[in-house]
From TrEMBL:
<keyword id="KW-0808">Transferase</keyword>
<dbReference type="InterPro" id="IPR000182">
    <property type="entry name" value="GNAT_dom"/>
</dbReference>
<dbReference type="InterPro" id="IPR016181">
    <property type="entry name" value="Acyl_CoA_acyltransferase"/>
</dbReference>
<dbReference type="GO" id="GO:0008080">
    <property type="term" value="F:N-acetyltransferase activity"/>
</dbReference>
<dbReference type="InterPro" id="IPR045039">
    <property type="entry name" value="NSI-like"/>
</dbReference>
<keyword id="KW-0012">Acyltransferase</keyword>
<feature type="domain" description="N-acetyltransferase">
    <location>
        <begin position="1"/>
        <end position="143"/>
    </location>
</feature>
<dbReference type="Pfam" id="PF00583">
    <property type="entry name" value="Acetyltransf_1"/>
</dbReference>
<dbReference type="GO" id="GO:0005737">
    <property type="term" value="C:cytoplasm"/>
</dbReference>
<protein>
    <submittedName>
        <fullName>N-acetyltransferase</fullName>
    </submittedName>
</protein>
Amino acid sequence: MKDYDWQYGSDGVDFDELCRLYRAAPLGDNTAAELATVYGNSRYACFVYADGALVGAGRALADGVDCAYIGHVAVHPTHQGQGLGAEIVRRLADQARDHKKIILYANPGTEAFYGRLGFLPMNTAMAIWRDPDRAVEAGLLRREGSRLPSG
């Protein structure tokens, strides 16, 4: 893997640059202020730089004992496919290793990728989303009584 500079914690991070990374990844349309809030409220965060430019990021919410949630892992398209996303997840999981469980949300179709990193599918996860119709349409949620797609 290429040489990268790693930063842990969000002190000094340019959240406008992070916002641009999220759009390029593509990982959504969060504003810089929203990203500053979610990263500021996360126990663990890492930011990855190549030649001074932000090319990867991720965070983990954690309570210090029971549960850590890894989310918002983004890698710039020019750095995808080189193992950087996997390394971000590994480093966040390592920081949270003393928790009883580490959870992450995965887009449909990424189960094998996260499986190679040691994550197993959950049978008990439930969620309330602000826009459940959009989440159902994206394949992230299913309505009660519906079946998981076979595959």
